[in-house]
From TrEMBL:
InterPro entries: AB_hydrolase_1 (IPR000073), AB_hydrolase_fold (IPR029058), Carboxylesterase_BioH (IPR050228). It is an enzyme of class 3 (hydrolase). It comes from Streptomyces lavendulae subsp. lavendulae. Residues 27-249 form the AB hydrolase-1 domain. Pfam families: Abhydrolase_1 (PF00561). Transmembrane segments: none annotated. The keyword Hydrolase applies. GO terms for molecular function: tropinesterase activity. PANTHER family: HYDROLASE ALPHA/BETA FOLD FAMILY, PEROXISOMAL MEMBRANE PROTEIN LPX1. SUPFAM superfamilies: alpha/beta-Hydrolases. This is Tropinesterase. Its EC number is 3.1.1.10. The keyword Hydrolase applies. Keywords: Hydrolase, Plasmid.
Length: 266
């Protein structure tokens, strides 16, 4: 059975926890979305680690990483990616990011083209998030009936084994491994402006995998293709919502393998 080892990277005093799946091939760094955790990518990591060095990061404010970092800016998240890649010896990794993790991956590839070999966005795009997104996130997370009395109760409410697996047990039940106000603060910068200039600066090959019922509307995906470089492929996954990696892993895994296999070896 494939297993992982926890690796800790400290950047500017902030603890960053990673699941290092090992592997001796070209490196892949997996970035989860808002209110998520590295374990969401366990199935992806297990699939890819036979041929690649795979690391999944608990992003700041999430999971086993620093719970209440002072800085949750987009720049801080990009700097975390660079620090993890450098400290763990991930030379020019392919960045695979879902949702807010995809946004972070895009910004990293745009700002540091010499350090990123390929980019995979999973239901993520460069348009500005709606102005009411922080309030919607706040309301949504506030509706969680905490504490969950059991993992079964959490699975039923959250609708996902993977999301329930990100919870922590306390004396009176199960709680998320993040704080609601930190999540609101982390998503707010995405609402401040569109990020099309960064998307246009992505120079590496890119794969965009969108859920048929995800958050990226057809007009945005069409504009992404229009402005993308020649080595960009976009795929819509039927029957999938926002969490393509959880909804349709049997579709996503071969897409990732095919993309990685087709990348230039240099």
């Amino acid at each position: 059975m494939v297993t992982w080892t926890e690796r800790i990277v400290i950047r500017d005093g902030v603890r960053l926890s990673c699941r290092d799946w090992g592997g001796s091939g070209s490196p892949v760094l997996l970035l989860h979305g808002l209110a998520g955790h590295a374990g969401e990518f366990d199935a992806v990591a297990a699939h890819l680690s036979a041929r690649h060095r795979v690391v999944a990061l608990d992003q700041r404010g999430h999971g086993a990483s620093e719970r209440r970092p002072a800085d949750v800016s987009r720049e801080a998240h990009v700097a975390d990616v660079l620090a993890v890649a450098a400290r763990l010896g991930l030379d020019r990794p392919v960045l695979v990011g879902q949702s807010l993790g995809g946004h972070t991956a895009m910004l990293t590839a745009a700002a540091h083209p010499d350090l990123v070999r390929g980019l995979v966005l999973v239901d993520a795009g460069p348009a500005a998030a709606a102005p009411d997104t922080p309030a919607t996130i706040d309301e949504g997370l506030g509706s969680w009936p905490l504490p969950f009395p059991s993992l079964d109760a959490a699975r039923e409410f959250l609708g996902s084994d993977a999301w329930a697996a990100g919870l922590e047990r306390r004396h009176d039940g199960w709680y998320p491994r993040f704080d609601r106000d930190v999540m609101v603060a982390a998503i707010t910068p995405v609402t401040t402006r569109p990020w099309w200039p960064e998307w246009q600066r992505v120079a590496c090959p890119a794969l965009v995998v969108l859920g048929e019922r995800g958050i990226v509307p057809p007009a945005e995906s069409a504009e992404m293709l229009r402005l993308a470089g020649p080595d960009t492929t976009l795929v819509s996954v039927p029957g999938s919502g926002h969490d393509v990696h959880l909804d349709r892993p049997e579709v996503l895994h071969p897409l990732l393998s095919g993309f990685l296999d087709a990348l230039p070896r240099t």
